[in-house]
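[job 0412] stage=complex_fold ligand=adenosine-5'-triphosphate status=START
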Amino acid sequence: MPTISLNLPGLGLKARNDGAEAQHDAPALPRSPVQARQLSKRFGANTILDNLDLDIRAGEFVALLGRSGSGKTTLLRALAGLDRISSGTLDVPQARAAVFQEPRLMPWKRAWRNVTLGLKIEQPRERALAALEEVGLAHRENAWPSTLSGGEAQRVALARALVREPQLLLLDEPFAALDALTRIRMHQLILSLWRQHRPSVLLVTHDVDEAVLLADRVLVLEKGRIAADIAITQQRPRSADAPQFQKVRAQLLQLLGVEIEAPAEAQPEPQTPTPIIAPFNFSNFSI
Ligand SMILES: Nc1ncnc2c1ncn2[C@@H]1O[C@H](COP(=O)(O)OP(=O)(O)OP(=O)(O)O)[C@@H](O)[C@H]1O
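[job 0412] stage=complex_fold status=DONE, emitting structure tokens
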């Protein structure tokens, strides 16, 4: 007689129809909304993603690091449904939205119209305004994209993502083109929006500090697969000066192939006077 297993989530019960006793297991975890199995992506003869497995849990903030050309954007585009995968399986929520390095606003549409662009929804203006309000830009609803600063334009792009009420928010280096101060403000904004709406987030970044500052988990992509998966347990708000932060940063830099010299004070005293070289400053270090 064939065995049919019926998983009853949350009960840890397996019902079988083969007469055997029901087993009591550990409670089943809810299924991850993002699941990639044996996912491969090839461009011609080049295999960029190679039988990659990935899970992102509901409401989880995951950052993805990797050397240039390792396939981060390729993975993000596959998750966004912008590119087809070559083989494997990929489950993603229908409600997903992406924000890229450049805001990609239509220059001939006012800010609020950019927010609801392509959406068939009731009361689009009110919905756009509410989303702009969330990113602190309600007062610029009628602005043309050319009159917005880089940070403002990126916030309109975020509002455009929010209005779609995504279960999965894909961020491809959205802060990379911004000045340092605006980037700090954007970090705060993205965390507060994430707390409020709790989508699953995948943030592609080159900035190790940004990854450790924001994410629950940092992944490193290498040779087409997830080569490292590091949980960040430090409580938010996180300080880059905390030993915990520095330890993870050093670990990630090492995984990314960045040689780190021991801090100057750990070096033995030189016998003869040597020119003073400022210690390497890790803050905002990016690859
Ligand atoms: N449409 C395409 N056709 C052919 N090759 C592509 C295409 N898109 C990406 N690639 C190649 O796939 C590889 C990975 O590119 P991808 O942009 O995903 O890397 P990345 O990790 O995001 O890089 P970076 O950090 O520099 O942005 C690169 O070698 C790139 O040239």
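Residues 180-197 form the longest helix (18 residues).
[job 0412] exit 0
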